[in-house]
């Protein structure tokens, strides 16, 4: 299934993937000691995305900073699996998992257990320098694990020039990473982001990635607003949006609905 386009990204209209930013989970430094407030936060944001008409949703352990360099703790994986299982029942739309910082194997395991549809991997190929240290590509171990557990139906969305990091080799360009992630790393879609969470994505990077991997679905991974999303069309297949959907730190269903309506009026 390497390089197979996810069906929900096949529409002629852009797709809105809403982000559920989970509070700190067990073992994270900022964990508050109780699971129920985390579950309530997840339900509230998820139901707002559903009410607003989001086309898909991705859950991530956003509150777990500082993130581990490699594998997540068993407690994190167990908690996120439980939350994702409930999310699957509450909102029967395409569901994704992002296990920060770069635990794609753990994310695949969670997705397979709960029936999720895709995962996000920050560094699938190459190497990046981040606050965690050096993040190395995990394509080989991830694809082998996905094959071993029979989870080939789960799509891999891979970041290109991922936020909160810099390339280890300065000569490794956006084109190189897009081409390698799509053609050699087994990605099913590519994600382009800005420098950090909520920061705008460079339209030139999107065009360069598209030129290097023209068959790959492209997603905008940060900084999308109602005023800016048209800059990325027709190349962008969809938009992963979290910050712009929030009011006072919570997902607002009317903001979600505005994005959905705007996307419906546009065309790729």
TrEMBL record:
InterPro entries in the cross-refs: Aldolase_TIM, BtpA, RibuloseP-bd_barrel
Signal peptide: none
Family: Belongs to the BtpA family.
Protein name, per record: Phosphorybosylanthranilate isomerase
Species classification: Bacteria, Pseudomonadati, Verrucomicrobiota, Verrucomicrobiia, Verrucomicrobiales
């Amino acid at each position: 299934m390497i390089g197979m386009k996810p069906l929900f990204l096949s529409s002629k209209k852009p797709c809105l993937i809403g982000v559920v930013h989970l509070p700190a989970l067990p073992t994270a430094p900022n964990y508050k000691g109780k699971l129920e407030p985390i579950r309530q936060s997840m339900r509230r944001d998820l139901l707002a995305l559903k009410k607003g008409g989001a086309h898909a949703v991705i859950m991530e352990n956003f509150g777990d900073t500082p993130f581990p360099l490699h594998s997540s703790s068993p407690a994190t994986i167990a908690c996120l699996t439980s939350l994702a299982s409930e999310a699957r029942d509450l909102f029967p739309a395409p569901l994704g998992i992002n296990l920060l910082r770069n635990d794609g194997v753990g994310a695949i395991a969670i997705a397979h257990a709960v029936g999720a549809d895709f995962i996000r991997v920050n560094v699938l190929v190459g190497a990046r320098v981040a606050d965690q240290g050096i993040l190395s590509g995990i394509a080989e171990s991830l694809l082998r694990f996905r094959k071993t557990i029979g989870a080939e139906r789960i799509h891999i969305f891979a970041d290109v020039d991922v936020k909160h990091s810099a390339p280890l080799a300065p000569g490794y360009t956006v084109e190189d990473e897009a081409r390698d992630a799509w053609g050699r790393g087994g990605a099913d879609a590519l994600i382009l982001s800005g420098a950090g969470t909520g920061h705008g994505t460079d339209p030139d990077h999107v065009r360069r990635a598209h030129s290097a991997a023209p068959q790959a679905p492209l997603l905008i991974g940060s900084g999308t607003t109602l005023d800016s999303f048209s800059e990325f069309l027709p190349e962008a297949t969809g938009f992963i949006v979290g910050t712009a959907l929030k009011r006072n730190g919570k997902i607002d269903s009317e903001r979600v609905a505005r994005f959905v309506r705007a996307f419906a009026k546009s065309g790729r």
